[in-house]
């Protein structure tokens, strides 16, 4: 191999490695976010309730925010927008899904937690966000969220915000449905 | 190092390219075929430079459409959708079709001459990487005529704006960017192979002119980050056309991931556009100060440090996306750290000037303006690096002012300085000094009139990428628009200077500038098509 060929083949190796690295970053980023709890990413699997003594000396405000408007004509409502809970206490909150369209549809609520350092201390025992939902035209569905804040929640965290954003799920078809911003405003804020 | 260098590549060029060249040159193709098939580094260099000049004007016209609309508050000339296409296309064309090819063109012309090589290491690949460019950018420009219009999501093409909400032509944009990316990657491979293998006998790495050094480091940056860009736009392509959800939260993806990946490419990319500029200025200032460059070795190490740091600062573009405090601090400090090697460079240039016998020919004027105005851009960069302050500056005209100061009187002035400096070598004639000075002064005044008021409108809160603005910004925008037209029109003088210089003018000797010391000044002016067929012997000069 001539020196030029050697240089070129080495640069090509770097090139391929960097291209692969860009794709490897996608799962790595996901893992990194889950481990550190950054970016509000949470586990989408149920966690066991830990029976621990409730820390009655401390109150944490839990805010529940629901958002729609990504082209899914559904409404998502929570029975209480804000709760005051003790660390260690198991809490159940009801959420109401309403399909406002004329057709059955699949949707899912994508969760996010803020601040990120509260993330690892939040245990979701049961959540509608673990799976996708199917709602018939005009159907109304009540689903619970059961969670617990661990007793080792950092002391500086006084407020935890749980956000659920509704997204449409295209079942069985890979083709993207046309998403025009107009349709989102129909269902979004109604 | 030096012992194993010269032999094999020179044999290669004598038996392979040389022999093939002499056969081919028995009957050189005529007309357009000559340019389509050329493998000569000087001809390809010229093609790159001419292409870049044409694209500079196209991107400039887009900028003037933007400035025309912003001349007064309210919507006057274009509708907001077209305005967005203009800002996007201006950025894309200037970055990928004007600045980058201009530096590659200068590299093609000058690197073989500066290291005493007969041509680039891979001449046919060189031809291919140039001819990919017109294909890529004709494709990109054609999107403006497609239904739904061209890219309208900014040159940073953040997802999901560039995926879910993008015009249908986005797939063509992705293809064009892939082709342009392949072109720069191939160009970078060629430059690395040339510099590492084809230096004249006796020239060690630390004897290379700084333009060669900065380009070597730039080429490594290109190899490292252009594949990441290719990866990002491939993911966009999959998201748009194949139902994946890399950047779509609905399917478990993450739009913030796009920004991380983009800026992991994007920050080194901005150094790709400035490191060769450092090299050009480091050639011109010693020539016209008639002193060797102060701190050669520190210049090399500073360039390498900037390149390494460029991989550790990307999230300073994302201070407001909701990074954790630790990340904000980390990226703030690493960003500020870049000021250290950059400061080393600026002080080295100033120290080179100290007690020199300075003359102010046009290349030197542009180089000095580079040092002053680039430093202003560097300082506003430091202001933006301060994470808490960036929450105020983010996405305002202050950012626009900052990056235009580093790119226009930074990168583009250095290219112009390089063109004025090397035109005698390329054409055998000196460029007109009178017209050159007019061009310089009109450009300096135009640039500052255009971009300096943007600092103020940005600090006062004017957002980027808007076709209309609140009335209190009217005066700043009026000045900016007038300056932009002055700057744009004065570039016609640049074309006049170049055309006149190609056609005739004062004859230049081999060593066209009194203080010029590098190897390219040892070949006749104009440089014959084939140079250094027998390698020169370089006696290493000790650096002061």
Description:
The complex is a heterodimer of chains A (190) and B (544). Chain A is α+β, with helices and mostly antiparallel strands and 190 residues long. Chain A folds into 2 domains: 1-36; 44-188, Sandwich (Ctag/Cox11 (Pfam 04442)). Chain A contains 2 helices and 9 strands. Chain A has helices at 3-36, 181-188, and strands at residues 60-67, 74-78, 82-85, 90-99, 105-114, 122-126, 133-135, 140-149, 159-168. In chain A, the strands form 2 sheets. In chain A, strands 3-1-9-5-7 form a 5-stranded mixed sheet, with no helix packed on it. The longest helix of chain A is centred in the first third of the chain and has 34 residues, at 3-36. In chain A, 26% of the residues are buried. Chain B has 544 residues and is an all-alpha fold. Chain B has a single domain, classed as Cytochrome C Oxidase, Chain A. The longest helix of chain B is centred in the N-terminal third of the chain and has 36 residues, at 80-115. Mean pLDDT of chain B is 92; it is low at 1-24. Classes of the chains: A alpha+beta (190), B mainly alpha (544).
Instruction: Please state the second-level CATH architecture of chain B.
Output: Up-down Bundle
How would you name the CATH homologous superfamily of the largest domain in chain A? Ctag/Cox11
Assembly level? heterodimer
Put simply, the count of helices of chain A is: 2
How much is the average pLDDT of chain A? 81
> What structural category arises from helix and sheet content of chain A?
alpha+beta
Portion of residues in beta strands of chain B equals under 5%
Question: How many domains is the backbone of chain A divided into?
Answer: 2
What structural category arises from helix and sheet content of chain B? Answer: mainly alpha
Could you state the order of secondary-structure elements of chain A as H and E?
HEEEEEEEEEH
Distance between the termini of chain A: 70 Å
- Elements of chain B, N to C (H/E): HHHHHHHHHHHHHHHHH
Give the termini distance of chain B in whole angstroms: 22 Å
Largest binding interface between chains? A-B, 41 and 43 residues
**Gyration radius of chain A, to the nearest Å?**
22 Å
Q: Domains counted in the coordinates of chain B: how many?
A: 1
Beta percentage of chain A is 25-35%
Task: Tell me the name of the CATH homologous superfamily of chain B.
Answer: Cytochrome c oxidase-like, subunit I domain
* Cα-atom radius of gyration of chain B: 23 Å
